[in-house]
Amino acid sequence: MRHLARASLLVITLLINFVQGILIVGPKHIRAGQNYTVILSSFESNTNERNLLLQLDGLSAGGKKLLHLGQPARVQPLSNSVISFPLPDSLPAGSYKLSIDGQNGFKFHREADLLLAASTTTALVQLSKPIYKPGDVLQFRVIVLGGDLKPPAPSVTATVIVHDPQRNVIRRWTAVSLQLGVFEEQLQIGTVPLLGRYTITVTVTGANAIVSKTFDVREYVLPAFEVAVQARAVPLEKHQRLNLTLSARYYTGQPVRGVATVELYLEDDKLDQRRVVRVYGATQLELPFNEHLSVYDDSQDVRVHVAFTQDETNRTIYKEQRITVYKLPYRVELVKEQPEFRAKVPFDCQLRVRYQDGTPAKGAAFEVKVEGAYTTDRRVAYTSDAVGVIKLTLQPEASSESIDITVNAGSEELLYERISKREAGKAFLQVKLVSDVKIGKPFKLKVTCNEELSFFMYYVVSRGAIVDSAFVQPKKVTEHFIEIKAADLMVPRSKVIVVTVAKNVVLCDFVDIDFEDLRNNFDLQIDRTEIRPGEQLQLNMRGRPGAFVALAAYDKSLLQYSNNHDIFWEDVWGVFDKFYSVERNEFDLFHPFYIVPNMPYSIKRGELVELQFIVFSNFPKKYKASVTLFSVDNQTEFIGRPATETSYTKSIEASPDTGVPVAFLIKARKLGEMTVRVDASIEPAKDSIESVIRVVPESLVKREMISRFFCHNTYQNQSFVLGLDFDRKADAGTRKIDFILTPNILTSVMDNLESLLSVPTGCGEQNMMRLVPIVLVLDYLTSIGSADKQLTAKAIGLLRAGYQNQMRYRQPDGSFGLWEKSGGAVFLTAFVGKTLATAAKYISEIEPSMVEQAFDWLAARQHSTGRFDEVGPVFHRDMQGGLRQGIALTSFVLIALLEQPKVAAKHRPVIEKGIDYVTRTLGSIEDSYDLAIATYALLLQKHSSAERFLEKLVGLSTVQQNGTERFWARDAHGIETTAYGLLSFVLAEKYVDGTSIMRWLVKQRYTPGSFPRTQDTFVGLKALTKLAEKISPSRNDYSVQLRHAGRREEFRVTSQDIGTLQHAQQGVDETAQLELHVAGIGFGLLQVVYEYGVDLRNFTAQFVLELQKSVTNAKHQLQLEVCSSFTPQLSDGRSNMVLVEVNFPSGYTVEQRGQPITGATKHNPIQKTEVRFGATSVVVYYNSMGPERNCFTITAYRRQKVTLKRPAYVLVHDYYDPKLNAIKMYQVDD
């Protein structure tokens, strides 16, 4: 017998006496928008009709009435009466109860508390992949379901939030509309995001979070083949060994050849043995344990770790597999027809015996000991039947109180279980499903009771409501069969509850009814299970008219990471007890004959490189194959062949057993991207592939830029002559020139939003390059009322990605640090805080509380004098180093506070104290950097002494070019200093004077979109934009003529071209001088970008850099020890942030899995390691560097054969003062 509460029903029973009684049954939960149904049953024939009043009431915590519904009920003898309460669409939290009162003289009163279901909606989330790389696009689908498992009402909206591993909000979609209950979107993952586990959370209108799903973001490489480890037989303790099958196959099924290193751990970190074996597709391996393994429980896991290295590519894949070792070969289950036995009544049961892999153990011998069923204990030998079952019929004695069953195999005990005796006079009820279940057809139930049944009631419960019921009157039997029609409302799972009264006791039992053929049937078929690249796959779908169908397809190889991203059968049951079928179809991308390339990411010009390809054939016999490599656009030179040949053909024998490698020795003729095209053919088939290899110069590439601007308020002509300053030692053939016409200061920024800097952006300050220019662009587009929705959407998308990347540097206390776990920095928190405060106007993910917390943290760091000092790592010494009374950092923090009105109002005492500290230092400020930042802060605050500061600042400036250019000369940070000076001129409304500063600044730009460093770009672009807003003419209407090397090209610009860059269509010939002639009205930037290569040996070192290399493992492994130190002008001086860039010889890469750096010195720890350019380069970050030796060892592996290799190099440089550097070449012998 089972208690009714387990079936989530409420039972209120009045038993006046045996001949007069009523049973009332209803759900324990009420749900908004659904009917609440109560069943009243009278099980006495000799009574009159009963009248009852049912009331449903709800009260808030404060006593406010939330609900009041009433329904009368008339209950006839030996029948059910069904009462339904329609509930409103929304029900607030409160106390709810059901009251039942007798009417018309019938005295009856009962109350029962009801529970309000927390939500009438649920959801499922489906992702496109289980794991994403930085820069990937995440696609997802949210399916929201109402309480009836259908799409919710059209008024229901969903809010979707993505959190990063530190619970920062990365993306938010607020109150989005649903299409038939479905919301689909995508998220651009940041290029340098916080790696780890992210969470998508879904909430719906008026509810808390109803579902969430996680996904991983990390660097990974999808291998072309998979490695598997399986036990050939179930391992047992007595074996003391593992018999394994180790396989390595391409996802197309072809075998892979290589070497596997197998490690066996009997305990988590205890290595039992290591074996090295060769593998070709698959091999069998026996591992006898060196140490004895004792299995104390039923089983114990051991760990097998495999490192498999492919012969052809030298690539390594790691696989770890836990294998269970069992104590015994069998598992036994006791299956009983009744939970308890009755004295002197035969008790049938059976022992179900299975091997540990789940298969039936047929013909297995066991000893079964039975205690308590007979006058003496019995031990009987049994043998399991063909399905692994041993049937038992026990004969309990009158004195039996319990029966103990023990099953042994030899000396090992497999099972011990006790069966209890049913109390005398105790009634029981049982219901069983004895037929199949099909929608629209009746299913049969068997009801059994140890007392004669004169009546019983059944209730069909589905999705929390009673959907069917009946009052049944058998003819005083102990068994009765009933049939119930399977209706749509019962899908997908229902519970049939049977209730009767025997000996004044309510008895009940229930059975679950599962529907395999669902109401919204859907069938998906694909026309074939193998498909060739480029072919179409036909999907045949059949379902209910008007059904919403959502499809997902992904590479099966992704499942080696996880399948958490998708919706599977168990997910559906877990959300709402299975409501529709999810169809999964698999197909293989099949090609009977194909080529797999194995090529380097990049090579150096002049190197001899072996390009390798692997040819696969799935045909049953061997064929002679022709493989041809083409010189596309004469970019490739074939070694050992005539220089005029445009293709090179080799013959191989294509085998069905394995891939056959073929290699071509080539040399690249030109810099840039070299197209590689290969054709392969056999008699019945052919294949062709095309890919790109980057050809880089053998020397260091230097990039330069010349900029001029014009601002014509009336129609006029102006000419410019631009000379290109190529280094005399530039390598021949490396010069490239481009001309760019920009009609607005920010046009080039808008055009290059995705690639603003050519230097690394691997720390919390450098990463701001992915935020600051985009915020400036959005501010500018807003100020001019731009209607360019596409550009605005692009900028907002990139802003979200930049914000996402920046959140990795947020510290637990709300500050921002240079590294992920470095603790907060005053300078960086001020920089990030003011940027995010502005960016919050454009993306909702930036929560006001987060910005407020950052500024509160800053305010708490102010000294009583008003000064701010850095508490984090010092990487920008002029700003953070505490030099010159800390004026620069204090002024910078004040600027961050003053630029945000709400922040300034909250922290006014902090600002006033800081301003007072700065103004007291005017007489002692001699450095133009400090003075420029302080002047801008005072002008922002409109302080009375701002004019005196500005006068002193102007006196420190340098004027050149006949007064047309003004700047502030400084060994470092001259651009940043001059930009603050321009910002001060704009605030002081000295617009005309500011144009001379603007003219100098535009000449300093590093690329068309930025300046050399983060702070240069941040302040420089802001200053140029602020002045351009004030002085730019209201319209553009001009032409520009470019003359070079005897050629001419004309450009036309109108006011419609505000976001359009114009480049020289045919490029610019190699020349030392360009002429530009402008005619018309408007504003424009004339920019010439040029680059050239310089031999690394011509650089002068400012650091000490030492390299020590070793090549091992048959020259497949390169170990490079790098030691560097800074040579300061003063004995205790240190550099700013230092980057050590290690570039590898062509054909070598580091493993992207794990840490490539080992043996690093501890006194000045490495802060970050960044793998770049297809693992061909690694950047190592230090906070700073002094005269101490900073060493580390880096390991790379040869992936391709390269001869006549050009030297590789290591570069160490000061990030904020890049002229402080050292470069050293090294070479790996052929």
Helix and strand layout, with pairings?
Layout: E1 9-17, E2 20-27, E3 29-30, E4 35-42, E5 50-59, E6 65-75, E7 79-86, E8 95-102, E9 109-116, E10 122-127, E11 131-132, E12 137-145, E13 158-163, E14 169-176, E15 182-188, E16 196-204, E17 209-217, E18 225-231, E19 241-250, E20 257-267, E21 270-280, E22 282-288, E23 299-310, E24 316-326, E25 330-336, E26 340-341, E27 347-355, E28 365-371, E29 378-383, E30 389-394, E31 402-409, E32 412-421, E33 429-433, E34 442-453, E35 456-462, E36 465-472, E37 477-485, E38 493-502, E39 505-514, E40 522-526, E41 530-531, E42 539-543, H1 569-576, E43 588-589, E44 593-598, E45 602-604, E46 608-617, E47 623-631, E48 636-638, E49 647-654, E50 660-668, E51 672-682, E52 685-696, E53 700-723, E54 736-742, H2 747-751, H3 772-783, H4 789-806, H5 826-839, H6 848-859, H7 877-880, H8 887-898, H9 901-906, H10 908-919, H11 928-940, H12 946-955, E55 958-960, E56 965-967, H13 974-987, H14 991-1002, H15 1014-1031, E57 1037-1044, E58 1047-1054, E59 1062-1063, E60 1073-1094, E61 1103-1112, E62 1117-1126, E63 1138-1143, E64 1148-1149, E65 1157-1158, ...
Parallel strand pairs: 3-9, 11-17, 26-32, 41-43, 45-52
Antiparallel strand pairs: 1-2, 2-4, 4-7, 5-6, 5-8, 8-9, 10-12, 12-15, 13-14, 13-16, 16-17, 18-19, 19-22, 20-21, 20-23, 23-24, 25-27, 27-30, 28-29, 28-31, 31-32, 33-34, 34-37, 35-36, 35-38, 38-39, 40-42, 44-46, 46-50, 46-69, 47-49, 47-51, 48-50, 51-52, 53-60, 54-59, 54-60, 55-56, 57-58, 57-60, ...
Helix pairs in contact: 3-4, 3-15, 5-6, 5-8, 8-10, 8-11, 11-12, 11-13, 13-14, 13-15, 14-15
